[in-house]
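Newbie here. two chains, one complex. Structure please?
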Amino acid sequence: MMVGQTALLLVLTLFSYWAGCRLHRRIPHMLMSPVFTSTLIVAGILWLTHTDYQTYRMANEPLTWLLGPAQVAMAVPLFRGWNLLKKHLSSVLSGVCGGTVSGMLTATLMGKILHLSTVTILSLAPKSATTPVAMLTSQAVGGVPELAALFAVLTGILGVVAGPVILRWMGIRNILFKGLALGTAGQMIGAARASKWGDAAAAMGIVGMSVTALLIGLFTPLLIRVFI
Amino acid sequence: MNGKKLPVWFVAVEILILFLVFLLGNAVVRLMKWPVPPGLLGMGILFILLATGKVRVHLFEVSSQFFVRHIVLLLLPAIVGVFRFWPVLKKEGWKLGLILVVSTITVLVATAGIARMTKAKGEEK
């Protein structure tokens, strides 16, 4: 019985993701992304069947294990973009550092000004890191991984929606910098969008994403000690 | 081994290797008490292996693409947990939304702006 339920709950995730992807292919809109639709399907079915979230989470532990290898695998795109990175090392590094730090500072300071709870701020701070890094980092400093995951995903979507408009408004024409900004602000989702501007932009997006993840993993604990 | 296409089951081997590298990163973080996320250290280890030519990038083709494309699947169980925080989101939703928008725009502007400012003179395109 228990084994059967565990397997079913795992299948539920796989099925919902598959359904979400199909739906997105049919209606290719940002809001129809599996991030939203599949989540709603899973939540709806859990609610209808009175299944406890903890039980669901335990059953889906195998998927969570894969987040580790997924992070390690980012070395591949980083390696591919390495030559581009080396060529533009100083501007890339200063851009990503400046962007990431200012993003973390605005989020933390605004959270303080708006009187958000410390736990919420700690879940917000690492939001421009790729979701697995954001989750693990936030957990390490005392935030809520689920909230961190949500904020990271929303940040990615916002970055993709606002990015092209803002960059055009700023008059940035260099596609390398455009890709870099999207990857830094919108991580994996941003880097995927940057690939529409070509391979070079995609590689820079991936570089932005990886360096951001690294910076956030390293500096969040420090930032927290200073501001919280 | 040198052919363009690796067999389908090889993905399992790829993921297993990636997992072992992750465990190695995890062990180092635990032992040395470094304040680095284990996954990132694992990424660094694999990067060094690739950069020094110890491992060929071709070996991780399929799995790295799979992870980039389907990361949402792996995150789904965690994202569903968001509904447990519904009261927080309902109460502070507008503040959170405002922070996300302002801070994401800040990141975009700062990254692209600083990158453009610091562009070395010799660099073109």
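Moderator note: The CA atoms of residues 10 and 61 of chain A lie 9 Å apart. Chain A touches chain B through 105 residues (CB under 8 Å). Thread marked as resolved.
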